[in-house]
Amino acid sequence: MMRRPAFIARQASRPSGLLGRMLLRVMARETSRFNAEILESLAPAAGEHILEIGYGHGGALAAAAVLAPDGRFSGIDISADASREAARRCHALFGQGRLDLRVGDSAALPWDAGVFDKAFSVNTLYFWSEPTKDLGEIRRVLRRKGRVVLGFRARTDAAMASFPSPTYRFHTIDELTALLELAGFQPIDVHQAAAGADLWIMVAGAHWGETYRRD
Predict the structure, then answer these.
(1) Segment 121-152, tens digit of pLDDT
(2) Which of 82, 136, 137, 159 could form a disulfide bond with 109, CB atoms 3.0-4.6 angstroms apart?
């Protein structure tokens, strides 16, 4: 894998302008398979309220809405250009009153505690400067027995050589497990994704003392 130029890495973390919009559309194609695996683990169900952290192009939210046609969806992304792109892709959900998109920082979520049944985030945790804050906020807004699903590229020599620091901050499986536990998530299930090398899916419960079992 070739090393990504620094300016492309910065656009991936916060898409803006024409280049950012083009990158979002490329990412929509590149991440579709991984997003499908994430949603399989998330298992959106009837009547649930689901949050996406870092919705980007909005493709995952649109796909989740198909899986749960009477569900409600919310999302936050740091990029205003991503918000416009996602709103365009998900315009039907707005018309149905089923979607709430915000622009902001996942380290300070603009929702009350305990309002979401499930949350998910794909390829965004690299950009969290203090991931315990973001994970703690996700934990706060989840209902008891809620679930978070994280899709990410684990820290390997290949990943670190291909994606420039300091924009990208990779974590090992053990490091991310420890961060989730510190934020109040337990139990934690992790498995390798079929979508690509070094891609992993981690599922964590927003409660203690019970066993999460993947169907």
Answers:
(1) 999 998 898 999 999 999 999 999 899 999 99
(2) 137
